[in-house]
Every structure is written in C-alpha cells, then in structure tokens.
Amino acid sequence: METNLHEIRFSGVEFAYETMSAPLLRDLTLHLPLGWTGVVGANGSGKTTLLKLAVGAYRPMVGSVQGPEESVYCAQRTDDPPPLLGPLLAAMDGAAWDIKGRLGLEADWLERWESLSHGERKRAQIAVALWLEPPVLAVDEPTNHIDAQARALLEGALRDYRGVGLLVSHDRDLLDRLCRQCLFLDPPGATLRPGGYSQGIEQAALEEESLRHAAEQARRQRDRLEREAVRRREAATRSDKRRSKRGLGKDNSERHKRNLARMSGKDGQSGRLLRQMDGRLEQARQKAEEIRLKKTYDLGIWLGEGRSKRDVLLRLAAGVIDLGGWRTLKHPDLVMRPDDRVALSGSNGGGKSTLVRHLLRRLNIEAARLVYLPQEISAEQARGILAEVQSLPRVELGRMMTAVSRLGSRPHRLLESAEPSPGEIRKILLALGIARVPHLIIMDEPTNHLDLPSIECLEEALDGCPCGLLLVSHDERFLARLTTTRWQIASDGWDARLEVVA
After folding, report:
1. CA–CA gap between residue 124 and residue 315 (Å, rounded)
2. Model pTM?
3. What pLDDT does residue 265 have?
C-alpha cells in the first residue's frame, strides 16, 4: 500500500480465492476517507476480504489499493490473545491507563486468557488496537459477545478514533451512530451510500424501486415494438405479394401498374418501415436486458414436527457450579419441558456458557435430537465441518444447502470456500441439525457473526419451531420475540446467582 495518511483508495480492484470459479470482487473503485465506513452484506459476500485488502493483508489480483502503510485489523475470532496484550497490560503511560480503564481490562487477563469470556477477549482485542493509534483500523464484528454495558464503553472508545476506520457489524444501532457512509457488498460489485445502515438501506430500497419501474417501462416498450414489428412484417408481406408479377399472365395493364409502383417506391415503403422497426426493436430489447434487478431468494426455514414425547428435557436440582478462580454460580431447580422457550442472559463473564456446558451433560434426549451451536467455532473446526459437508451424499447435501440458502447464503459460493466465515459455519451447523428434526435447540450467542438478513431469517425459522429452545444472547430484540421464560444471571464479586423469571 502506498502512503497516504488521510484516505484509502481502491482502483479497479479484482480479487478471487484460488478455489473460486469467478471473482468475489470485480472492478471495485471507491474512496474511504477519515472516519468510520460501515461494510455490510450477506455472509460470504466479501466483507472480511475487503477489510484485509484495505489493511494490506491481501493483495488484489487486478488494480490497486492505496493508503497508509501502518494499519491494524481486528478479526472476528478471538481464539488467541493479541500479540501486544502483554505490553498494554504492563504499560504505565496515560493512554494505556485510559484505554484499560474505559474497556475494563484486568491485569491478569493474559495469564487466564483461556478462561475469559469471548466478550472479555473482544474488549482486550479492541483495546490493544486503539492503544496503537493506527492510521487505519479495520474492525470485524466488534460487538460479538458484548453485553449492553460493555457495548456502550466500546462504542465510546471507537467514536474517539480519528483515523480511517472500517467497521463490519450486524449491530444496526452501532452502524447508524458511528458511520458517515456504508459500503453495501453484493458480489462481485459494491455500492457506497452516505450515512449509517438505516439511511443506506432506505436509499437502496428507493434505488431498487426506481430500477424496477425502469425495467417495467423497458419491458412495455419492448412488447409494444414487438407487436408493431409483427404488424409491419405482415404489411410488408402483403406488399410483396402485390408487387409480384407471378400469376398475371399476359395482363400487360396490371404489369404496367406494378412497375410504376416500384419506380415510385410506394410499395417499398412497407419494407423500409419494417427495417426501421427492427432497429428500434433491437435497441429496446438491449435496454430491457441491461437493467439487472437484484435476484431474490426464498428465505426462512420450515421446521417439521419436532416436539419430544418425553415430559421433561432437562431437570437440574438446585446447587452450585464452579466457574473457576474461586468463583461460583448458585442456581435454583431448573426444568425444561418439550415446548419451553428459555432465554439465558447476564453480563460477560457471569457464567452463561459454563452453565450451558453443565446442562449439556444432563439432557434427557438423544444426541441426534439436539442442535447445539457454541459461541465460537475455531478455524480448524470450521474447515473440518466444511470437509464433512462436502462429502455428504448428493441428496442429503442438497437438503442441507437448501436450508443454508434459506438463511441468506449462496450455497455454490460456500462450497467453493477454503474456509467458511464464522457466520456461514453457524448456518451450516444449524441446517445440519434441522435436517434431523431436533427436540431441543441450544444456541450460545446465535446472532453473532450473522448478517442482518440472516438474523431476520433465523428469527422467522425459530419463531415457528415446535421443539424446545434455550437461547443465550445479549440481543434483547431477538430474545423478546422468541422466548417466554428468562434465566437471569446476576454477578456480585466472586459469586453469581441465577434467577428464573417467568
């Protein structure tokens, strides 16, 4: 990347992975100024790829990316601690103290990284990036796993950043409050629109409506000209018959009339009009074909009958669960029946994921009837899952990919991927589980890594689900629609308590 401290410029950029039959991005030209630019699109549309191109981690096959040399990319995954987390935790300067205080970092986080919640890991990742004050900061899904309090702290820290910022997020409110423009990806192209996500999506709807109107007008004009061309062709055929001398015998007077018509060009006018019409018709057909409307797909998943015949799916007597580091979670009697819809909520580090793992070992259902989606799936696990999917029998693969398509991803692009995105691998696991007609679905932070249309599709699918649901999430809108019972964890120092709220 060439040095320019105030902007990033993409010029005719084309990029594809080795496994792809067509470019993911083609002829991409855009200008990214100081401030935050949101990057939105379906899972697998190239959001992470674009961020890596912007920071110089990837090189375009065609075209160029110009911008500052120094940049920081914050990945979606938080498997490993940031390389400079240790120096940040040990730093005593004012900037380090400020960022550690604002995002709530603790001195021992590096030593106990494996025991940190994913939300705590994400805060540490963002803190290191902001402490470095890079001229370019690309952040991929910063609010994944973050509770409401931490989200407010994180948003304030990101708002104070003064460089060129790129933000991939499914958090509509964050995009609206931070971004001065949003880039909407729809491979192989992209459209840059001013304002946050809500303003951009409204503008996109207006553009699509205008395009549909233009397409309808073009089709009507083409159809009208086709009808007129048929009429003129019939007229020209009749004219040719009149001008023909065949069958006239020795009627010299009639032959003389037809010769005069040819000399005056009167009867040839039908042919000339037909040729003119053919030219206009060809132009109308080309115009109608050039207007490309965005393809729409069937969305949502219809779940078959999946209600268990058993009276209880889970029963856990009141007790205490060890959270590690002398911390405990006290809980009352917990019961889940076949059609219960339970929301498990609480602050980061309160023990939600630990409780879920504890419950998984005590379920009263067959393993094949359980769908479990953990908070995070490592890159190695994702590659293994994709390899397993690619080896499925054709019929089973077809059913699974239909379900993936109805969650908003394009199956052919997914099958070509060397490593599916975190959002795509979650869709694959959900689709595989749904094919087995589950009795219980447990999802730990289900909206993490999913694009906005996919979240809406997931809500539609689970809303009509006949089986039991246990959803762990900070997304209150998601929980409010899908659950009827709340298991709320409150943390007080070393101790955490779970309360059941009907």
Report:
1. 37
2. 0.64
3. 42
